[in-house]
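Researcher: Re-running this chain for the archive, since the previous output was lost when a drive failed. Same request as before.
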Amino acid sequence: MAWVLLLVAGLLEVGWAIGLKYTEGFTRLWPSVFTIVAMVLSVVLLGIAMKSLPVGTSYAVWVGVGAVGTAVLGMVLFGEPASAARLASLGLIVAGIVGLKLASS
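Model: Regenerated structure tokens:
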């Protein structure tokens, strides 16, 4: 269950990172509310997951899921570059996340 919570926390991190773009410096109400709620829920779920998972693994996976998800959505939503080197680097992050999961089982 801790891994599921950690994954959801990472997805919420993606939500708030992308949400920051839409807040326009926290000048738009609803994107700002969504972003703040996603931030709080993400950190709360991370904390709950850390009750039974190692802190280093938890944090690295949380950041990795957030980084990969945010980078991919940046490419899809905002037309950011999707070069081979960038995609390969994201693949390495995913490999690291999978490796941490396998090493923690």
